[in-house]
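Changelog-linked ticket: phosphoenolpyruvate example.
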Amino acid sequence: MTSRTPLIAGNWKLHNTVAESQALASAIAAHVGNGLACEVVVGPVATSLSAVSQTLRGSAVGLSAQNTHWEDSGAFTGELSPTLLADVGCSHCIIGHSERRQYFGETDAGVRKKVAAVLAHKVVPIVCVGESLEQREAGKTLDVVLGQVEAATEGLDAVALAPLVVAYEPIWAIGTGRTAKAEDAQDVHRAIRGRLAELKGESWSDSIRILYGGSVKPSNADELLAEPDVDGALVGGASLSADNFIPIIDAGVRRAES
Ligand code: PEP
């Protein structure tokens, strides 16, 4: 269907002790082994990154942080930096998640700096964009989402941005059990790809993975992943158990093989 390798990423948010994180990572790694037709990434809490990195050694499962600061080091109490994420073995970093924008004052300008900073350390940014229910009902979905995409990529060229992953996560669908209809998700994904093409060129935009996030579960993953511009999923709640996450990974494999 497409040459883009599907990506299934788990965002464990503020859940799991070190031991619980390692047990979950180990069950996922056992399923993924040396690699599947789809890429798999897990995102534990910061205190578990080091231990999970050890657990995943030798497996094809990538490791994602949930946030970073843009500076490498300095007087920034409580922060993590791209240098430290790379040092601990992170391959990916979630940036601009709506919970960070909503509760921790994350701005488009901060997101842009973080994207540039992680790319400089060869860490793949998974940039989250998405509209609130109020914005959707006011017909502003594309204004909001495309504005966030534009801000996140500003000042960086297609070469620097080659590894970029975008995650479209309508805020009203995150953790609520409400999922966007597959065709509505596809409309937004297509618009995102179109804007990326206008900004940095069509061949680049054709290579960029755009994930859907918002109450993805085993029962709706295939339908969402059947859409041409839905290249994978960013999964919150359903990534916290191997029994739910593995069938979503398998849906990613089916997409890759379709
Ligand atoms: C998320 O936190 O990125 C997310 C999509 O959560 P959930 O799958 O629980 O809606």
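Closing comment: Example verified and attached. The first helix runs from residue 18 to 32. The CA atoms of residues 55 and 138 lie 46 Å apart.
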